Request: fold
Amino acid sequence: MYPEILHAQQVILLCKERGIKNIVISPGSRNAPLTIGFSENDFFNCYSVVDERCAAHVALGIAQQLQEPVAILCTSGSALLNYYPAIAEAFYSEIPLLVLSADRPSHKIDIGDGQTIRQQHVFANHILFDTQLEVINSVEDQEGIATNERLINKAINTSISQHGPVHINIPFEEPLYNKVDQPSLEVKVIDLLKDESSIIPESFIDQWKNAKRKLVILATLNPPVFQKEDLDILTSDPSVLVMSEVSSNVVHENIIWGIDTLIAPIEKHDDQIKDLQPDLVVTIGGMIVSKKIKQYLRRFETKVHFHVGKRKAYDTFFKLAGHIKVKPQLWIEQLPKEYVKSNYQKRWTDHFKDYLIKRERYFEKMPWSDFKVFELLFKELPNDIVLQLGNSSTIRYAQLFQMNPTHVVFSNRGTSGIDGCTSTAIGAAIASNKPVTLITGDLSFFYDSNALWNNYIPKNFKIIVINNSGGGIFRILPGHKDTMEFDTYFETQHHLTAKHLCKMHSFNYQSISEESAFAKAYQKLQSNNKQPQLLEIFTPRRTNDTVLLDYFKFLK
Reply:
């Protein structure tokens, strides 16, 4: 069945023609024409998620895994505004989303109708393309039909080619629920024009040849971007030092994976850390997590910075010289084969190996804490999973451990917000053919607790909540601690537990608060795949920051 409304038919038919199969729908009346058309067509996979903020993040997680546009559909009014956090994340993480919002016709805006706001251009600062369709009342309106076709095609093409969110606002007049057996019109697909570059500028090649200290930073990357052979070639140059972040999904024996572990012990010693100063910096991937490497490269005024790949080039270090829009693999293939004499790579990889040996002594006496929990987790996580990491403390602790090369790691690092971490992980679990595990903090989990209000969560989905009774990251940051203002307005101390949420949403729940209970609880978490699992790990609120900061002092 199809909606009787003609411009609703256009949206449905063009989504089908363009292969947009996954539609996350939030309930409403004004969006009924599209809900009818999508849900009654076997081509589409439709998901009903009530909370629009969660729904948009679920779609984000699906699109993150499939690397193709996913549509989100809502009714008119404030429903649309709840999409904004996920849209901003999609904009900065470069994840394709097709935002479809139902609206009243223009003459009914600002006259006092309920559930009506100014929806046009509402995401103007964080959208790649937004438009409003024309109301089509007759198949004789060929001009209006052609205009809508062009706008819908442009929106979809933009989302695919530029990797991000687009918004189509669609006005509907009542009646909204009438159906027809067959569409009343046909649609035309406007093909996407491919724009791929394969040329590296000569100016870059010249600077690369002459630089004796080249630093390559691998940030957020959806695998597979590199083969081992590519990394072998890149790291065979002694003047090239490669650093990777946990979300880069890159593991290699000659790459420094613990940026903060390398920098923290020497960051306040100018005479030592100046030796790390590169002549040339290349970034590949999305947003960089490590605040230490950003502060360092800004503080010592990076000489020149190039960004490689299709992802946006940000002037992170205030010295961006160019954006080389070629695939990273192709970039490596075209690098000069002759190398300058340098000990840059060996010096700093040797430093890093020394720190790794030294830190084992610290781990042996490390007390129960957030840091200890992460050490235990990264020893025990099973192979071949999708690992979703929450923001704030979670991603930063994860940066201190080498990733399992069989894992695929994701985190919402576009805006780095805590909102939607659980919903995104659930979306990923819906789309992934691998088991998904989410590691998250307590504030992130409770903030997005409506994520569990979802009928599509796979039975093998697992959540590990590290509950330190507040925003533990604020205890690590500079500032006065253990005052009324700090406890209430920064750390936001609480005594909540996930137990009752799990009972309400049919998650199997267990909790621990000491190291001796970890092994048994973790084995139970991994062995039970009959229903979604949640393990809540309680850590001491006043100890965590000291344990982490003492780690860096110990290396120093």
The chain has three domains: 2-176, 202-351, 366-555.
